[in-house]
Every structure is written in C-alpha cells, then in structure tokens.
Amino acid sequence: MDLSKITLDIFTKLEQKWLSHCEGKKTRILSIDGGGTKGFIAGSALIHLEDQIQARTGDPHSRISDFFDILAGTGIGALYAAMLNADDGDGRPLFSAKDAVKFVTEKQSEMFKIKHVGIVRRRRRFSCRSIDKVLKEALKREDGTVLTLKDTCKPLLIPCYDLNSSAPFVFSRADASESPSFDFELWKVCRATSATPSLFKPFELTSVDGKTSCLAIDGGLVMNNPTAAAVTHVLHNKRDFPSVNGVEDLFVLSLGNGPLTNPSKPQLQRNGECSTPSLVDIVLDGVSETVDQMLGNAFCWNQTDYVRIQANGLMTEKVEVSMEDVLKERGVESLPFGGKRLLTESNGQRIERFVQRLVASGRSSLPPSPCKEIAVSPLVNGR
C-alpha cells in the first residue's frame, strides 16, 4: 500500500471540498469609512442594507455578516464593523445593524464626553475613561467574556497608526489566528483606531500574550477609507480566500461617512493661505477619494462589482439629517480621469440593487475559520 499516494488523495479531496464552498461565487467585502462621532451616513446605509437582506431572504434573523466574507473599518466605521461581526459564542453576531446604530447613537455623549485641559488656555479633549467604558460594554458577551480579534464571525480588518514604528499597523483576524502575538482585545482595537490626536491621547495596547505592543493614533490619518487595504488583504490571503486570483473575483461595498470639507465654507484665510483645520480635512478627504479613484480604475469602472456609497454634500446643507435624507440623496461616482458625476439612482436604490445580487449569490461562501471551532446556527446554512 502506497501511503504517500493515499495521503495525497485525501488532501486533494479536502482541498476540493474547501474550494467547492467558493466555486462560482465572488468574495464579498464590506468596508466602512471613519468620520464623525456617529458615523451617521454609514449607519443609515447599514440599517438599509440589513433590512433589504432580510426582505429578500424572507428571514428576519439574517445579518450582514451572513452575506459578507470580510468586514473592514476605520474609526467609527471600525466600531460598526466589530459590533456587526463579533461572535456571541454561538457563531452569530452580537448586534444587528439597527441595534449597533442605536447603541452608538445613545452612547455618543458618553463615548465622546468633553473634558477641558490646561489652565491658561483651555483645550478641548474627550475623556479616555468614558470611551473605554462604552467600548468594553459593547464588545463583550453576556457571560462577561472579553472578545479578541479571533472572536469574530468573519475576518476583520482595522487600521491604526503606530507611533512606536512610525508606520501604519493593521489589526486582522488572520494574523490573530496565526499567533497570540497579533491577537488583541477587540475593544482596544476599536479604541486604537479612534484615537484622534487632537481629541484623545495616543492609546497604548498590548497583544494577549504581551509580546507585541502598539502606541496607536487614529487610523483615519492613513486609511480613513480602508477598502484598498481590505482588497489587498483578500488578494494575498490564500488561507482564507483560496479562490481569489484578482479583482474579478471580488464584490465590494464601500460606505463613506460624508466629506469633511464643507464646500459652502471658505477654505482660504484673508491672507490667501489655507487654514490648518481645512488642510487636515482636505488631506483626509483626499486620501479617501484617492482610494475610491484607484479602486474604480482597478475594477475597470464596473458599477456592479464595486459600489461606493457616499454623501453628496448632504451633511453640510442641513443641521438635522434623517436616515431617509441619506437614502433619498442621489448617488455620486468617481470618473476615470478625476472628478465626480451625479447618478440618477439614489443611495437607497444603489444599496437595493447591490443586495439583489448579493442575496442571489447565496450566503457567505467563506467557511468558518480553520483556526477555531465555531458553533454554527442553522440560520447560517439556511437559504
């Protein structure tokens, strides 16, 4: 008996079984920008996205993570991505989209509790203790278990900037599954990517085994739109995404949180120079829009496989904006040689069209992580 041949046959069959999960399906990516303290644009889009998924499946228990293979987020977008993806212990996400947005909205004043520092010149900062308390509350199970990067239903990707190495640092479930030296408590990951220098002190965190440390500031400074990082991660992670060979194998939804720059507000001072706050906003918006432009080009301006939902000046025109305002606003799209164009479809209609194709292709093709056992609910393998 040729044991090597038998072994080869066994592994070949296992590989074929693994790949059969993904055959004929594109890998689905959901990316959520940073921006603001509520992430209202993205929050409205997430609620509509999950409502549409439930309507098309006829299943009120369907969740966003059932239909996406990886979630990425920065700042407030990272918190949404983590809440919608955190494993409750039974292979189901801790929060629905409505519950996540409700939690963030209700806890906003506590998360971003203002304290003033300085004696002569009072400077506004937010309380680190308050936001820590809220994030700990959000990202733990009912039994009190503190979740780490490994405790997610699907792969997760969250960036920050590490002052120790003077380089971007990207937290990922893939790395956390490989080594405890890259596994961090989930609430600390969200805290790290939200540490805006002008509002919070840099946040120091250490991996669960104490071997890796990071002195983090806001991930939005380098990756406010994390879509490119998510696409690159999927293209190079053959363990979790064995069937992906190029962008033609991807299906991407990128959610913006509105531009920081206000077109109705002068960005130049009387002396003709650009103010520092305006310059920072321009840089952050520019980075996000550059990512959108590059991805549009990578996807050959395919409006079906790559969809970007972004506000078209809505937040600058109204003091109070409702979810209906966000969904009714006409969508915008980057043009091949720069600039934007106004679409005939609204943001809500674009999400609905995306969900139609999303649900038609079935639930997420990604099997549970091979690095841990997950109790799979019958809902996951339903329709």
Automatic annotation (TrEMBL):
The keyword Transferase does not apply. GO terms for molecular function: hydrolase activity. It is an enzyme of class 3 (hydrolase). The keyword Lipid metabolism applies. One of its GO terms (biological process) is lipid catabolic process. Keywords: Hydrolase, Lipid degradation, Lipid metabolism. It comes from the Eukaryota. Gene3D superfamilies: Cytosolic phospholipase A2 catalytic domain. SUPFAM superfamilies: FabD/lysophospholipase-like. Residues 30-231 form the PNPLA domain. Belongs to the patatin family. This is Patatin. It comes from Macleaya cordata.
